[in-house]
Design brief:
alpha/beta, seven-stranded mixed beta sheet, three-stranded antiparallel beta sheet, 13 helices, 12 strands
């Protein structure tokens, strides 16, 4: 069976818009182009109804009420609104936030900026598989702690956090709980009530929806404890001013509903393809190690380290045949070592040889087999060209 090249294996960075999602969006670009904040005529009412429907679709996927969904421009804005919104509403000087060193840069950089305004931050350590001990979170909480923030699923190594356990700690101490669930939405079950979540960040383009649209779940009772970051017309209940991206929001709703409908079929299929890819690499390539847990990780995620190899060189060498990455798209091209793998305690050599595979909805077994064979072949070739590079002891 022929394989169309290059095979895209970077679904953590972004996903293609599903044709069914695009079909739902198309009328809202030109035909139903109204502003939902203009209810005096049919065009505005049509847009408002479409937004309300999408709001209900997103809410249903996470066990929330529609009025608890605030639409944003994406996961980064949602993280900023959650973190800065809570801290600024409380008053940054003296506020304290607990998180982990493996969080997405949208969380870490927002907190770094808040530190310059007097907020303090505690980074809870993770184990060698990237998991957080809830007891470490409990020990980090102080009387001045206003928020704990831990992602639902890591964007580099795919490890899943026990949100319910973290939520129980936050509730016990009377602290707000936020989670970045950008990678988890549509891929693991999410229930904001069961997890004890007050705030949850979401994004459309990771689940075959459009770029430039996301959402923040804000528990009804928490709205008064969140300061808006944008001033303007007071859209989204006053928490996010600005004209709504109606077509994008419609696409977000359609993508969420589609992901929920396909969940029972798609997740095990991707897990099987992921395991097939790893089994081939483990069997055919010397000195290869798995980054992150064997179980309790995203079904479409595989992050491996090749000993004695520069992962970036492998990615570049394969670029015309396979689209891969060495980590988060937010730091790609900067030459920075993965902050996630550093937090796991891996040596520099192992981090340097890491590559992330992100499988997707439209992948076939033939494509996965092609990728596995080409990666193995290129790893052997790169090692042959640099025989003195040594080995990092990646296999474990």
């Amino acid at each position: 069976m022929s394989v169309r090249r290059p095979v895209y294996m970077d679904h953590h960075a972004t996903t293609p818009v599903d044709p069914r999602v695009l079909e739902a969006m198309q009328p809202y670009f030109a035909e139903r182009f109204g502003n939902p904040a203009s209810p005096a005529h049919r065009f505005g009412r049509e847009a408002a109804e479409a937004v309300a429907h999408a709001r209900a679709q997103v809410a249903a996927a996470i066990g929330a009420a529609p009025e608890e969904i605030v639409f944003t421009s994406g996961g980064t804005e949602s993280d900023n609104l959650a973190l800065a919104g809570v801290v600024l509403a409380r008053g940054a000087p003296g506020a304290h936030v607990v998180t982990a060193a493996t969080e997405h840069k949208a969380v870490l950089e927002t907190l770094r900026r808040l530190e310059r305004h007097g907020c303090t931050v505690t980074l809870v350590p993770v184990d060698r598989e990237g998991r957080v001990d809830p007891q470490d979170i409990a020990r980090a909480i102080r009387p001045e702690t206003v928020l704990v923030s831990f992602m639902a699923a890591n964007n580099e190594i795919g490890v899943l956090h026990d949100l319910a356990a973290v939520g129980e700690v936050a509730r016990r101490h009377g602290v707000l709980f936020h989670s970045d669930a950008v990678q988890a939405l549509g891929r693991v079950p999410l229930d904001v009530r069961r997890a004890g979540l007050d705030l949850l960040s979401l994004s459309a383009h990771k689940i075959y929806g459009p770029k430039g649209v996301g959402a923040l779940y804000v528990r009804r009772e928490v709205r008064a404890r969140l300061a808006p970051l944008l001033a303007g017309g007071g859209q989204e209940g006053g928490l996010r001013s600005g004209t709504l991206n109606v077509a994008g929001i419609v696409g977000f709703g359609a993508a969420v509903e589609l992901a929920q409908r396909l969940f029972d079929e798609e997740v095990p299929r991707l897990a099987a393809l992921r395991d097939r890819l790893w089994a081939y690499l483990e069997r055919e390539v010397e000195d290869v190690g798995l980054n992150g847990p064997r179980v309790g990780r995203l079904a479409h995620n595989l992050n491996v380290s090749f000993g004695g190899l520069d992962g970036e060189a492998l990615v570049q060498r394969l670029a015309e045949e396979v689209a891969l990455s060495t980590g988060s798209a937010c730091v790609a091209g900067r030459g920075e070592p993965s902050h996630v793998l550093r937090a796991l305690g891996w040596p520099a050599e192992r981090i340097r040889g890491s590559v992330r595979f992100g499988l997707g909805r439209f992948h076939t077994q033939a494509e996965v087999d092609f990728v596995a064979a080409r990666v193995a072949e290129q790893v052997r070739e790169l090692r042959r060209l640099a025989p003195s590079a040594g080995r990092s002891g990646a296999r474990r």
